[in-house]
């Protein structure tokens, strides 16, 4: 936008007033075009970790868009711990059959932040594991703009909060969205760098 605005100014300085009004109309027109451009940009996945997603195949963004969320996640190497946890909790069908959900998906690195003994304990406690995993799922599809200052009911029945703007969002003020707005057949996925813990 900036170089365009500068040219508009320098053009109008060198010409008479009639063309001045045309160039300001032209710059207004280009302003009108930019929000829709931003909208298109926001339909794309965003964030630093998106570059690690495979370019093609089942684990790519296009591939994931064709599969329901648990299946789609199983094709993404960065989400293998989450997929193991979902299988252990018996939630694969629940997630794959849900309609229009949002999943905040912790990466393997997010799970690695939990001391191994604690993680193993949780992975072997199906009730606790189910509680934690369902806390990462919201029963509606959230677009990036919905996250700017949100509070949402989770499938676990308590609330999580989101904040941020542009391409920088946090969940519960602790987890950063590292790759957001990933589409699957039945969900919007926001990949996060910390595991969320329900309050109770």
Describe, in plain words, how this protein is organized in 3D.
The protein has 200 residues and is α+β, with helices and mostly antiparallel strands. The longest helix is centred in the N-terminal third of the chain and has 26 residues, at 17-42. The radius of gyration is 22 Å and the shape is globular. Helix 1 (2-14) runs antiparallel to helix 2. It is built from 9 helices and 7 strands. It has helices spanning 2-14, 17-42, 61-66, 69-74, 80-88, 92-97, 108-112, 116-123, 126-134; strands at residues 101-106, 137-138, 149-153, 159-165, 168-171, 175-183, 187-192. Helix content is 44%, strand content 20%. It has a 7-stranded mixed β-sheet.
How much of the sequence lies in strands comes to: 15-25%
User: Major beta sheet, specifics?
Assistant: 7 strands, mixed
The CA-CA distance between the termini, in Å, is 48 Å
Q: What sequence of helices (H) and strands (E) makes up the elements?
A: HHHHHHEHHHEEEEEE
């Amino acid at each position: 936008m900036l170089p365009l605005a500068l040219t508009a100014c320098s053009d109008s300085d060198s010409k008479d007033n009639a063309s001045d009004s045309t160039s300001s109309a032209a710059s207004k027109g280009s302003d009108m075009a930019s929000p829709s451009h931003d909208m298109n940009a926001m339909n794309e996945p965003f964030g630093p970790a998106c570059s690690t997603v495979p370019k093609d195949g089942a684990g790519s963004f296009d591939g994931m868009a064709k599969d329901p969320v648990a299946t789609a996640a199983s094709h993404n190497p960065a989400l293998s711990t989450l997929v193991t946890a979902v299988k252990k909790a018996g939630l694969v069908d629940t997630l794959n059959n849900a309609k229009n959900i949002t999943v905040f998906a912790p990466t393997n690195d997010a799970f690695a932040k939990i001391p191994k003994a604690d993680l193993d304990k949780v992975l072997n406690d199906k009730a606790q594991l189910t509680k934690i995993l369902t806390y990462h799922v919201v029963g509606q599809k959230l677009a990036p703009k919905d996250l700017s200052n949100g509070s949402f009911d989770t499938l676990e029945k308590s609330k999580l909060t989101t904040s941020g703007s542009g391409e920088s969002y946090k969940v519960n003020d602790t987890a950063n969205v590292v790759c957001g707005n990933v589409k699957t057949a039945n969900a919007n996925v926001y990949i996060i760098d910390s595991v969320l813990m329900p309050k109770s």
